[in-house]
Amino acid sequence: MNHETPLNPWQAPRPAFSFRYGDTPSAEFLGDWPSTQAQETRPDGSLEHTTWADPATGLQVTLHVRRFDDFPAVDWVLEFANTGPADTPILEEILPLDMTLPAAAKERLRLHHANGSLCRADDFLPLTTDLRAGQPLTLAPQGGRSSNGVLPFMNLQHAGGGLILAVGWSGQWAARFERSEAGVRLAAGMERTHLRLRPGETIRTPRILLLPWAGDDVEVGQNRLRQLLLAHYLPRVDGKLVMPPVAQCLQAYYYSTGEAGEQYEFKALPRCAALGVEVYWIDALWYGDRQEWWEAVGTWQVNRQRFPNGLKPISDAAHAAGMQFILWFEPERVRPDTELDREHPDFLLRSDHNLSNHLLDLGNPTARRWITDRVSHILTENGVDLYRQDFNFDPLRYWQAADTPDRVGMTEIKHVTGLYAFWDELRARHPGLWIDVCASGGRRIDLETISRALPLWPSDFPDIIGLPYGLGLHVGDQCINAGLARWVPLFGGGVWNFAPYAVRSQMIGGFNIGCEIDLARFSMDSPQEVAPKEVLAHGHFIWDEAFSHELARQAIAEWCSIRPFFTGDFHLLVPLTVSEHDWCAWQLHRGDLGAGVA
User: Fold this and answer.
1) Which of 59, 415, 504, 561 has the most Cβ atoms closer than 10 angstroms to its Cβ?
2) What is the CATH number of domain 244-567?
């Protein structure tokens, strides 16, 4: 139920939420609870805090609202705290967004949304759904990673404008849109909550962002969102936006040969510097004591067989050549018989559905402190500038297995908020640190993660998995990048060929070099007939004479020349599809420069 009734919710939305407490809807009692208000002035707007307190049970409900001087957007989070001496009654069906917008019965309402990432060529493909009475639409990710299958950004269009909705929750959220005679109801929050709070316990909800826009073209709303994110959300270092870099990584060499070690990194580094590479990237091959990278997650120590001197000599060489150094981690996944499994089994969440992976419980303060200290030590000892965090399995069933019937959703809440605390602590300990958010590609992209990190690898389709598609990989690049750019302004991506068509297919993402492959020799019609390793066998690595160094240098220079336009408005010039027979065309425009690129 709406606890604040706006005069015109389409143009000036205000926070509206609901929950049930002791089996009673909040609309029936919250107005009777004593409340207090406070306001803070910020350089870019204001923060408002409203707290309602239940005299009987000690439950406090606080609404934290952020407003902006330069955008008509509103951002809010709900917080619940038990200040009483006993467990609270059941708190359930918590919806930080629950509002009904007026709409005439015959008015067309369209919801613009997008696929999330599923390692497919149609990752982030734009979708439009007409909302009709009696046909509610629910969007939710798969398995507890926030953009696994669906992106948590939406644009509800009506006659003359619309309303952007973004959900900030790196877990299992859900958003429901339901048309009725009264208008259209918007409800969003965690998919399931049914829990008691222990004395002294505090939880928070998903973050909600609403941004109204006016006009007939949906791209007006999309670009208002982009500019809001650029101005107030995306991460900065020393006051400057973190921009996607030109990077190089030898992970493909490891996949191709099974070999990894400092000798290969030192072989590649001079070539990288000569090309104009900005970031030297070591991915999933530097840690543990096992051959396969996925078998070693859970042992976060440098593999001294591959890197006998540690990683510091490599980062020193990168820094001396004017590059930064990025290092991959996957701290939440723990394989059996690794260090964390052997020495700290109490840190782990387990599920009978998957005994080969355990989940490090970031909701456990002791476990979070341990992994924070370990990662922080590795970052310091090895001169790491960019922390890359991957997450290659679904956590939802682990959270559910740890919940009791009267604490449904609690493990997820603690884990997700623990993730934010982990990242925030790393950034506090290491001023200037960048974070790259990865989860099997782009399966953890939401308002909270992109406020702290850039997704430098937003889909695993343009990885070795997509290489057997041949030129179809470039079609996927076009869809993935143009689709995501409508919602998220800055992100990365991979480059496997330096021909103009290949590079320009990836042009609005980052520029990460794996190896150079002539993909035209592989068929997009029968990719299942070719193993990724077979494709990589035809690749040329950066130290090879056959590697197109001059073509790569030209491609990097061209990409760098358009990077300043990534912060401009983005327009699709034709409908975006994944058909190899259709054109892909887009434009970036910087109004402040009076210039753009198409």
Assistant:
1) 415
2) 3.20.20.70
